[in-house]
Design brief:
heterotrimer, A mainly alpha, B alpha+beta, C mainly alpha, A: 11 helices, about 0% strand, C: 12 helices
Chain lengths: ~290, ~525, ~325
């Protein structure tokens, strides 16, 4: 066994090394999927010439055919077109649902981890309380208070999402706080702020960013679940979870309304997950 | 070694799937069909929602409660298919000339399902309970009762004022006789879930959230009824699941099915689709206390801006009809048939708005209940229709509590609500539409004193032809006010196994399961 | 002694958290708005009937009083009565809990059954084809929306093939119950399978690594064996911990699955109660769930403190 291992290592050394990220197939696949997703979100019109909102009752509930690639829904709207136009909503939910928690949660984690003390205790207690609630119920309650609509989906995602980042960053900061590297910076008289921003942050941020990549999937799915329960995006927006919900009444005979939006959700989820997962490996390899 | 483990694991998995996937459920009776028709002992109904209580005067009585209670409790009279009043526990009756005193002769020898005979005291207590139970939503049916005097053979009811529909009110599901002694024994809280009535069935068991079983009342006064010994209600909280359970034979009857399932039922030869005439209509409710619908011209423009045909067609297929009169056509002469359905004319709507001084498309929000497919569909279609007719409509989906809050506080601009009449009379829906004090004129905020006075007069008018005229006039005025706009009517859609006989649902949504039979 | 103090400290910490949770859920629910009395009475509710019911249900009293009544009940271990159903919340719990528990246990079982062999394979053949395929597969599992998977399974196995009921709960006997639960359990187990698989894979990879080291160093069988034993134990701990924590979460998070498959469980009860503004039910259930989660976390932490000497207080 050992011999094979050493053989591989030497063989690699002889070749001109490709950049790390290109070597990993999962990363490439993930990146490609995400780029496709972004493209669809930005330019749905490039891939279809129909109107996602146009109602045409005469063409209701058609099976997938040449005119309607994924069939039509109960109002005669083209499912394919609706899915394409819905991409931007789901992408936004995933990305922006994660961005704010990443930033705010990260900052909170930095401060709490570095300074400790009362601030840290308060923040952690708050997190304990919030995490004691069943996640889905908490989101539902928040959505019920705020009312439905895409803006409130974001607010709910932000209110619930920051905690993971705070815990993550705080943990990393606490570990890094006691390293020689940071101790040295302190001894040299750098201000706290400088230490936080220029020394700690670059080191702890990578794990947060990696977590964010897979969190995008969770946010997208949570947003879609809310639409599925009737609490999310408002009609007639073609958000994928909402289309799935519309299709529920017809699953006995119009399965296409259910199949395709879910496929897209799954596919894009996989893309982000692959990205996140391979980022973990890559960053680990770089050896922090 | 490890590979073998894997293979064994896989085999186990396949085996367990095979065991589970045993195909369709076995029918409980595998007996051969004999030449004489044999009937089953039990019929299973798949209900979407569970009754909260089994007392028709309890809080929040709705379809689920009414249907089960109807099998357990009975009243003095009942209505037949055509709305004619038939005797029930009363054998005959007379009404005084001034319309204030109703005297009923009771059918002798009636007992409750526990064997106790029905006494006059029970009648007095029951009818006054219908009137006085504070948390009941149907008190208004009995509020006109002044006094009840009853012996074991006669019931005399004196009213506070003459009320033409009173005999029909007495046929309503909450004007039934209950056992006072039983109520005293178990206390009010328990009485709501432990019913004892004179009807063909009594409660055998109730597994909350899952099922409810009714069994034949051994003391029922009609020989040979009920035809089927047990009626079991299965609570199945999803329409698709209900339908699939009907297909697989787990349930025999499902009611109030969504129209999306109808094609599936028609294509299945073992199932029967029944579309019973109903008084169910959906209405567009416009809030007259705020812009833009405070202007009657804008409201009237809606007549041209909505395509009721498309609504009925898209949502209910051939089973719905556009309507224009407040009272359902199923109510016969009470409905104003001279009011016609205005066809969709978007250009005319735009002109009307322009003539009223509006150059820009009129913005408004249509707030609807999110839990119902029909409401969502209506909102989606209406939005697309009115947006081509000079309006700019947004849809707001709200869950039940939120939308309820909104329209009870008159903070909505437009919403969609539904009405089903409970009695064969125009007074219910008309009363609700014009009553400003109890419900803000059906949440439109329109105070029309003349209309309310007319409605009061129509209620008291004893001459039926005059009454009909008055209600016609009320409907005309509501039409002109354009605050409550009827959209379309639908029937009660029931799907059942083709083995079921005797299924009939009245226009008020109630059925008599004592007539049901299931061929084995 | 340190450890005992730690345990006591943790137990004491639970109480204020539960207290805050109770306040939070009580007032959050009130913030949603909506009138439970009007919801109970339905479409034809007259203003006077609504008022009468509000008084009957005690909803007209000041919020603090209502909160105090709720709290008092909790101390007496009385969960109160459901507003809309007028039955004891504990009765509803007894009715619905078994369904959710069975579903959760079934899902966990499936997750374990699938994650063990898959994780083993992935760890044993780390970085090779098996590893990549299995890891990608489980990534796919996590990325799929559970309600979509559930619906698809229902279409395929419930509608088209008819092998399983398409939703609903058939309580007749154990067999029918398992049949009702299989599709939902498969759906729910996907995410957990992925998590457990990854954990198993890492553990197996570590152990396999040990084999190399064992051969390579040959420094004495005892030392390597002890290290291997440690890794084994850690692997077991982390796996079991994952299972138990996630079971606790699944008990409260089965809302979507129960909705899709129309199962009368706790999750569906909670979401229905939120829509019905049945405050008492939601408050009691959330508090119960919070207590459960904290308890599981506490037990996990205590176990860790015994098993992992590196943990300090």
């Amino acid at each position: 066994m050992i011999n094979i291992k050493t053989k591989i290592e030497t063989r690699d050394k002889k070749r001109k090394p490709l950049p790390d990220w290109m070597q990993k197939p999962t990363f490439v696949v993930g990146l490609v999927i995400v780029i496709m997703f972004v493209f669809i979100a930005l330019f749905p019109g490039a891939l279809t010439n129909q109107d996602p909102l146009e109602i045409n009752v005469a063409e209701a509930l058609q099976k997938p055919n040449s005119h309607h690639l994924f069939g039509t829904d109960e109002y005669g709207r083209d499912i394919y077109t609706r899915i394409l136009y819905g991409a931007r909503i789901d992408l936004a939910m995933g990305v922006f649902g994660v961005l704010i928690p990443l930033v705010i949660g990260g900052i909170l984690g930095l401060i709490a981890g570095y300074y400790g003390g009362l601030f840290d205790t308060i923040v952690m207690r708050i997190i304990d309380v919030l995490m004691a609630f069943p996640f889905t119920i908490l989101v539902i309650v928040i959505m019920s208070i705020l009312g439905a609509g895409i803006r409130n989906v974001f607010i709910a995602l932000w209110l619930v999402g920051w905690m993971s980042y705070t815990r993550l960053v705080r943990g990393e900061v606490m570990k890094a706080k006691n390293t020689e590297y940071i101790q040295a910076a302190k001894v040299e008289g750098f201000t706290d702020k400088r230490i936080l921003l220029r020394h700690l942050l670059p080191n702890v941020i990578s794990s947060a960013v990696v977590f964010a990549a897979s969190d995008v999937v969770l946010c997208m799915l949570t947003g879609a679940s809310m639409s599925f329960l009737g609490l999310g995006v408002q009609l007639p927006a073609p958000e994928w979870g909402a289309i799935l919900n519309e299709g529920r009444s017809y699953i006995s005979y119009a399965w296409w309304i259910t199949l395709f939006p879910g496929l897209f959700l799954a596919f894009n989820g996989v893309g982000f997950s692959l990205l996140g997962d391979s980022l973990t490996d890559l960053l680990r390899r770089k050896g922090r | 070694m490890k590979k073998k483990l894997l293979i064994v694991a896989l085999l186990l998995i396949v085996a367990s799937i095979a065991i589970f996937a045993n195909g369709e459920t076995e029918k409980p009776d595998a007996t051969e069909a004999t030449s004489a028709v044999e009937y089953a002992d039990e019929i299973v109904v798949g209900n979407l929602s569970e009754p909260k209580y089994l007392d028709p005067n309890a809080p929040g009585v709705g379809g689920a409660e009414v249907n089960v209670c109807q099998q357990i409790y009975e009243g003095l009279v009942k209505t037949d298919k055509d709305g004619v009043i038939l005797p029930c526990l009363a054998s005959d009756w007379t009404i005084s000339d001034d319309g204030m005193v109703y005297t009923f002769n009771l059918v002798p020898g009636v007992t409750f399902s526990d064997g106790t005979p029905v006494t006059g005291e029970d009648w007095e207590w029951s009818l006054l309970r219908a009137r006085d139970y504070e948390a009941s939503s149907y008190r208004f049916i009995a509020e006109n009762i002044d006094t009840v005097e009853a012996t074991d053979s006669q019931v005399v009811i004196t009213l506070k004022q003459p009320a033409a529909p009173f005999i029909y009110d007495l046929a309503n599901f909450n004007m039934v006789v209950g056992c006072k002694k039983h109520w005293e024994e178990v206390g009010d809280a328990n009485y709501l879930t432990d019913p004892i009535g004179t009807g063909p069935y009594m409660l055998e068991s109730w597994d909350r959230g899952k099922s409810l079983v009714l069994t034949a009342n051994p003391y029922y006064r009609e020989e040979g009824y009920p035809l089927t010994k047990n009626i079991k209600y299965l609570i199945v909280a999803d329409d698709n699941t209900r339908f699939m359970q009907l297909q697989s034979g787990q349930v025999d009857i499902i009611g109030d099915i969504p129209f999306s399932i109808v094609p599936m039922i028609k294509s299945n030869n073992d199932l029967v689709l029944d579309m019973f005439d109903s008084t169910k209509i959906r209405y567009l409710i416009l809030n007259t206390t705020m812009a833009p619908f405070d202007d009657v011209a804008v409201r009237r423009a809606m007549y041209y801006a909505i395509d009721k045909e498309e609504l009925a067609q898209a949502i209910t297929g051939v089973y719905g009809n556009p309507v224009s009169a407040l009272v359902s056509p199923t109510q016969g002469k009470w409905s104003n048939s001279s009011l016609e359905v205005t066809p969709y004319q978007p250009e005319k709507a735009k002109e009307a708005l322009k003539a009223a001084g509006y150059d820009e498309p009129i913005k408004f929000t249509l707030s609807v209940f999110s839990g119902s497919k029909v409401y969502e569909q209506m909102a989606t279609l209406i939005q697309s229709q009115v947006n081509k007719a000079g309006f700019d409509c947004d849809i707001e989906l709200l869950e039940s509590a939120a939308i309820g809050d909104k329209y009870t506080s008159l903070s909505h601009q437009a919403t969609i609500l539904m009405w089903i009449d409970d009695i064969r009379d125009a007074s219910e829906v008309c009363g609700w539409t014009v009553d400003y004090d109890q419900c803000d004129a059906w949440f439109t905020g329109l105070r029309d004193q003349d209309l309310e006075d007319l409605n009061d007069a129509a209620f008291k008018e004893l001459d039926e032809d005059k009454r009909v005229e008055m209600y016609q006039e009320i409907q005309q005025q509501v039409y002109d006010n354009a605050n409550v706009i009827p959209m379309f009517s639908t029937g009660f859609a029931y799907a059942s196994s083709n083995k079921i006989k005797g299924l009939y649902v009245s226009p008020f949504g109630v059925y008599e399961s004592k007539n049901w039979q299931k061929v084995k | 002694m340190n450890r005992l103090n730690y345990i006591i400290k943790r137990i004491l910490q639970i109480i204020p958290v539960l207290f805050v949770v109770s306040i939070l859920i009580f007032f959050l629910l009130r913030f949603i708005g909506g009138d439970p009395a009007r919801l109970i009475l339905g479409d034809k509710a007259t203003k006077s009937a609504i008022k009468a019911l509000q008084i009957k249900l005690g909803l007209d009293q000041p919020l603090i009083t209502q909160y105090w009544i709720f709290l008092k009940g909790i101390f007496k271990l009385d969960l109160g009565d459901s507003l809309s159903l007028q039955v004891a919340v504990s009765y509803l719990l007894k009715q619905r809990m078994p369904v959710t528990i069975k579903l959760t246990l079934f899902s966990a079982l499936l997750a374990i059954i699938f994650s063990l062999p898959l994780g083993y394979l992935a760890g044993k053949y780390k970085d090779h084809v098996w590893d990549h395929t299995i890891r990608t597969l489980t990534l796919v599992f996590i990325s799929m929306p559970s309600f979509w998977v559930g619906l698809l399974l229902m279409i395929l196995f419930g509608v088209k093939l008819g092998w399983f009921p398409a939703g609903g709960w058939d309580e007749t006997n154990l067999f029918t119950q398992l049949r009702s639960l299989l599709l939902p359990a498969i759906t729910e187990s996907l995410a957990l399978t992925a998590l457990l698989m990854r954990d198993m894979r890492n553990s197996v990879a570590d152990i396999s690594q040990m084999d190399y080291v064992y051969f390579a160093k040959s420094k004495g069988i005892k030392q390597s064996a002890v290290r291997k034993h440690h890794i084994f134990r850690n692997a077991l701990i982390s796996y079991v911990t994952l299972v138990s924590i996630n079971i606790a979460y699944m008990l409260g998070g089965s809302v979507i699955i129960e909705t899709v498959f129309a199962l009368p469980g706790i999750g569906k009860l909670m979401i229905d109660s939120i829509f019905n503004r049945d405050y008492q039910v939601v408050q009691s259930l959330v508090l119960l769930f919070a207590g459960l989660v904290m308890l599981v976390n506490l037990i996990t932490d205590i176990l860790y403190s015994f098993l992992d000497p590196r943990v300090s207080y």
